[in-house]
Specification:
300 residues; alpha/beta; Rossmann fold; Elongation Factor Tu (Ef-tu), domain 3; 2 domains; six-stranded antiparallel barrel
Length: 300
């Protein structure tokens, strides 16, 4: 089975990834090849830079779902452990990529590397293309203000609370997936019952603390919400970071349900208020602002 293949982590599948994947799928179709992505079960940095680890933009299964939606026909999942990290680029090409995938076409981007010490560059692949009889295409990066769009750039924007910019770079709203679990029920006593999300991927990045307009998906239904990312310092003292969403115009028991929360816009910072009454007043202001913003996103 001859393939057109690309190699990478593809965390978040942002606009830069999508540009490369669109070339992959189009070229595969034109050449009657199978479009394939070789990616990793774990982020390479978990092995290379432990204990410093980047937080993920999407869980593995969500990444695989998105690759399929974008037209990728085949994925090869590789465990990026210490043994894999020390395989030379030449050995990886000779002993794995060529015999397993029979690539007639390899697609690379501006930051495509593989093999020990990141030796597997575009230039490396050029040098070996005649020997192994494959074509090679280089895809220029997608830029934001002159800077290549990357997963690390998007993580920086999310940590700064620049959610609308991060969403533009991703090509869709930043989404966190998980299950609704029981909290302390404090939101209900304030008139704003919340659904507490336990992430399905513990290493997924939680953006900057604050109140966000969000859209939650439960099954095939979607609801606007106000999502608090933070510790709720006015009413709690445990300093535990939580993801709490008040679903607007919604009243049902959704404990233990799977839920996806997409952040649309940041309303304000998390604050410590002088009293519960001040907090409730601020929450009503948040809700009013959220309702005013909903029309902008109602057709998205």
């Amino acid at each position: 089975m001859n393939k057109a293949i690309t190699i990478g982590n593809f965390d978040g599948i942002h606009l830069g990834h999508r540009k490369l994947l669109s070339v992959l799928t189009a070229e595969a179709e034109a050449r009657e090849l199978v479009s394939s992505v070789l990616t990793y079960t774990n982020h390479p940095a978990y092995t290379l830079f432990h204990p410093q680890q980047p937080m993920l933009l999407s869980p593995l299964n969500r990444k695989l779902d998105k690759l399929r939606i974008l037209g990728v026909q085949d994925t090869d999942l590789v465990v990026f452990d210490n043994n894999f990290a020390h395989i030379s680029a030449e050995d990886f090409l000779k002993d794995y990529l060529i015999p397993k995938h029979s690539p007639q076409l390899i697609i690379v981007g501006f930051d495509s590397h593989f093999g020990y010490n990141r030796e597997g560059t575009y230039e490396f692949l050029q040098q070996h293309s005649k020997k192994y009889n494959y074509d090679l295409i280089y895809v220029e990066p997608e830029l934001h203000q002159g800077t290549p769009i990357s997963s690390s750039l998007i993580r920086t924007k999310l940590r700064a609370g620049a959610i609308e910019l991060a969403n533009r770079l991703l090509g869709e709203p930043y989404t966190m997936w998980g299950r609704v679990v029981r909290g302390k029920g404090l939101g209900r006593t304030l008139g704003f019952p919340t659904a507490n999300l336990m992430l399905e991927e513990a290493q997924q990045l939680i953006p900057a603390k604050g109140i966000y307009l969000s859209r939650a998906q439960i099954g095939d239904k979607r609801y606007f919400g106000l999502t608090n990312l933070g510790t709720s310092p006015t009413v709690k003292s445990d300093a535990i970071l939580e993801i709490e969403t008040f679903l607007i115009d919604f009243d049902a028991d959704i404990y233990d349900c799977d839920m996806a929360v997409s952040l649309l816009s940041r309303i304000r910072d998390e604050k410590t208020f002088g009293s519960k009454e001040e907090l409730i007043e601020a929450m009503h202001c948040d809700l009013q602002m959220g309702r005013e913003m909903m029309e902008k996103y109602s057709e998205a």
